[in-house]
Amino acid sequence: MRSKALLGGLLVTSVVAVIAACGSSSRSGFGTGDGSGGGGGGDGDGGNGFGTGTVDAAVGMPAVVAHLTGKVVAPEGTIPISGALVYLAATTPPPIPTGVYCDKCVEITATTPYTYSKADGTFDLGAFSVGPQTLVVQKGQFRRAWPLQVTGPTQVVPQMSTTLPGKSNPTAGDDIPKMAIVQAQWDAIEVSLARLGLGTVTKDAFGIPVVKKGDASFDIVDTTLLSDATKLAQYNIVFAGCSFSQSTTCDTSQPAGDSKVQKNLQDYVKAGGKLYTSDYSYELVRQPWPGFVHWDGESATLGSACAGNAYDATAQVGDPGLSAWLTALGDPTPTLKQSWTAISSVNPQMGTDQDGKPATITPKVWMSGNNKPMTVSFQNGCGRVLFSTYHTESGSSQLLSQEKALLYVLLEVGVCVGTLPPPK
After folding, report:
1. For a surface tag, which of 63, 196, 298, 326 has the fewest beta carbons within 10 Å of its beta carbon?
2. DSSP secondary structure code for residue 9 in this structure
3. Which domains does the chain have, with CATH numbers?
4. Please, how many CA atoms are within 13 Å of residue 3, restricted to the half-sphere of its CB?
């Protein structure tokens, strides 16, 4: 039986913020170009910046006249953000679009001062001129643009200027993705997101952590969203946490069995949407994208791969960037707690790339446990799908290591699709 002490018996699951670190030419001010190929820390299809990977050598590198140093952190103010794009612009970039769109990487030239944050969130940005400029810090669709007087020769920028925003306020230069959490049963991801700075955590009458109503940067919706393609397209990210079960017995009738829901999810991801599911909601991956991931115990019956008992596992980290980040946090091998499904394999499948061309897609394994994948993602079209066998929120008063690790992965799979410029 599921532990109510761990899961809190919560009936609402929710969002985890996925963040794209790039931008199309319509809003970045860095020219055109749609990019292709792989790079960075995504699924072999994305990374942690933007650009086609070409720096305009003919222009030449301007002289650095000032060094800006600082640290990029999550909206809650302390957790470091690795691989965030930090750059200087003449003006505030246009707002990031809300709703689903294809976020292709764009070009960046040698005359634009830019860098990426390190595993511990710190950065050193060389500026090519002094005077009033706009400091832009971006990880995916989370972006803060801050007016800054560059004075040189060395300058520590205010921490607030490099803290990713927790709410959208484009007028002030703050953008975040529009997110929906499909109301569910077991995994209260909304509490994790609130602790990361996207809301306020309070407690209900039973002392269980919940998100304060009216103070969240995401919408909580019911499963009818999955049947409504128009409403689905209003969101950049959709989260459907562990659900569709009676205790430890999964339902044999689920939204994922509806061909309309399957097509809506396929079209949503292909157009650029990001879908995150966990645990017992695995059918929302298996049915629309058969073959990419196989689960222990699966059959033709919906819910057949649901396990009756949970298991914990020491993480085997398969991504170098994630490994460096966890090491910077002082937790290189976290324990992944409360998995209720097990992945038997991930498999290359035919799909499409961001340009609509046929492509062989191999799911990326971010973390494993007991020699089995536990966190996986894959791209199809302009969007991505992310699945974890374990829950995110535990009912604890503190962020678990796996909550922080999932934050990293969600940020990475949200980056633009295309090839990235080299780090400076």
Report:
1. 63
2. T
3. 4-18+177-413 (3.40.50.880), 25-166 (2.60.40.1120)
4. 14
Contact 382, 103 (CB under 8 A): yes
Residue at token pair 């007016």? 147
pLDDT attached to residue 18: 34
CA distances from 238 to 193, 296, 309 (A): 13, 25, 27
Q: DSSP labels for 17-30?
A: --------HHHHSS
**pTM (2 d.p.):** 0.85
* CA angle in degrees (0–180, nearest 5) for 387-227-97: 70
Query: Could you tell me if 305 and 266 are in contact, meaning their C-beta atoms sit under 8 angstroms apart?
Result: no
How far apart, in whole angstroms, are the C-alpha atoms of residue 268 and residue 266? 6
Find out whether 157 and 115 touch, Cβ atoms under 8 Å.
Answer: no
Residues of the chain with pLDDT under 70: 1-60, 393-397, 419-422, 424
Say which residues have a Cβ less than 8 Å from residue 150's Cβ, sequence separation at least 6.
66, 68, 88, 127, 129, 130, 131, 132, 133
Report pLDDT for 65. Answer: 95
Residue 88, beta-bridge partner list: 135
**Residues 96, 23 contacting (CB under 8 angstroms):** yes
Residue identified by tokens 């720096």 is 55
| Residue 238, CA atoms < 13 Å, CB-side half-sphere | 33
**For residue 8, what pLDDT is reported?**
31
DSSP secondary structure letter of residue 194: I
**Of 125, 121, 103, 123, whose CA–CA distance to 112 is shortest?**
125
pLDDT value of residue 402: 80
Quickly tell me which residue has 């799909």 as its tokens: 351
The answer to whether 342 and 372 are in contact (CB under 8 A) is: yes
The sign of the dihedral angle between the CA atoms of 72, 150, 177, 424 is negative
User: Residue 91: helix, strand or coil by DSSP?
Assistant: coil
